[in-house]
Amino acid sequence: xxxxxxxxxxxxxxxAISELGFENPTPIQEQSIPVLLTGSNDFVGLAQTGTxxxxxxxxxxxELLDFEENHPQALVLCPTRELCLQIANDIxxxxxxxxxxxxxxxxxxxSISDQLRQIxxxxxxxxxTPGRMLDIINRGAxxxxxxxxxxxxxxxxxxxxxxxxxxxxxxxxTPDTKKTWLFSATMPAExxxxxxxxxxxxxxxxxxxxxxxxxxxxxxxYVVRARDKYAAFKRIVDFNPDIFGIVFCRTxxxxxxxxxxxxKDGYNADSLHGDLSQQQRDKVMKRYRERSLQLLIATDVAxxxxxxxxxxxxxxxxxxxxxxxxxxxxxxxxxAGKTGVSIAIVNAKELGKIRxxxxxxxxxxxxxxxxxxxxxxxKQLFAIVHKIHDVEVNEQQIEQYVPRIMEEFKELSKEELVxxxxxxxxxxxxxxxxxxxxxxxxVEEGRSERGERGERGERGxxxxxxxxxxxxxxxxxxxxxxxxxxxxxNAKISGRIVGKIDVKGVFSFFEVxxxxxxxVVDNFKGAEFKGRxxxxxxxxxxxxxxxSGDRREGGYRGGDRKESGYRGGDRREGGGYRGGDRKEGGYRGGGDxxxxxxxxxxxxxxxxxxxEERSGSNDRKRRF
Length: 624
Ligand code: AMP
Known about the structure:
The chain is of the alpha/beta class.
């Protein structure tokens, strides 16, 4: 027997949710549905977003209400327009095999007359954001005297957004006999207080430990110098070719800066913040949902209620002001039983904040290392290999060209052919990362945890040495000793002055005293290895420190990245996106955002009032 039937849900609804792919109840559904179906309890459910909360209260509502009657019997309050629409749609979907179920979504930023018309026609379930709801109540356009159930969804978020007073006013129009069901991801004192205020001995259900993040989320942190943050962030992104992420910043200016830099660098990114009009927000969210955007750069407030499944990574580009917000941020990944990673990019001074967050979420972070340029290249190479392996061939279309293609390739062995295909994109990454410095910041006493120097030993302060790139490596059958000999011969220097040598695949790095660096570069001019030009160039920290500066001016190898095209390819595979749209997508995004800059509407769309973009204005919040 279907487990939802066992829980007491009727056939019509079970059939509808089966079509949505609900085979087994999620833990919160399993535990809350039997309690809520009695209809006689107030209820507090402490659960993360993405755990199946909507059905946990939505299915019991459909069982308990009398749909012969056409007046409001249930009111669901939630913090954002996105969530409001989502809940209303979900309930409509659960009830699509039932008769006479009327659900209305009431939210700001859309025509109020449409909403009023729907209400007049008769509804039983009202799903609303507090600002618009209050507006409609104040117009005398709705009668809540027949309300039997009130659901406060994402209660902590509603309080964070300053809706306390609105909620009080709305609830005062509902009868005392109603039952109140409250759901919240965290349980700060304010939520406790409202639970106490509105409820009578509620049944409490805690999924996981209080304030604890979802168990399916891994938390990682990277320690970088402030000036390397953007470069480090990009490297993390490049190391995860299939990333579908939300990147959190503290201010809207920061979201715009980062999104703009990413777009220039060829990524599919856009920003979501409070200065966008509702239409612009919808557009950005639509593109993100459809996966035409791979990275959504958002402020805390703007990202509330984002209910996109399959988010692989949440990246805290800046840590939130309030610790609780970390839980909300990370809860955007690992939804619906999936796994996800929440990443914090911090500088050494912020390690204390990581420890504080660990205490609040009851989980340890893993210290991760920013991948080297070589690691990224390798990862990307295999992403390309997998892509080539898995690509769907349109036999019908390509057939006509096969003879010509075979003719072109007739001289090449399978191995040569494979190498060439893989190199098309791989070369761009190699080129981009050839001078890539180590971006991991020293954590203790100026010494990186991975060790700054190799086996060739300490040679005074690092600053006395310059790191050089050479386009020869292990594929040219060099080991460290052989490369040292080769360098000494060509550069006409003594082996004793050469510092660390790092032999990679198709390139290597070596260090020489600063005073010798240019001489070595010059001495290599015109050198050849097996008929190939040998290139030696200055690499090292100097390059990295320029990066953040370059980026805003658009200098940061934007051209290379844009051409690299690997984003488009990944996305096409992942989300069935049409090829060729990638660049346009990115730039259109930039256009939208600039339009948005002229609109200073703030968060009127949510609540009818302008809200602070930073949620840090509430002093009672736990702050770092
Ligand atoms: P929610 O927490 O209600 O936003 O749900 C998160 C996601 O899980 C939504 O995409 C739901 O459609 C999905 N979901 C909820 N309950 C189930 C279930 N029992 N089986 C499969 N998917 C579910």
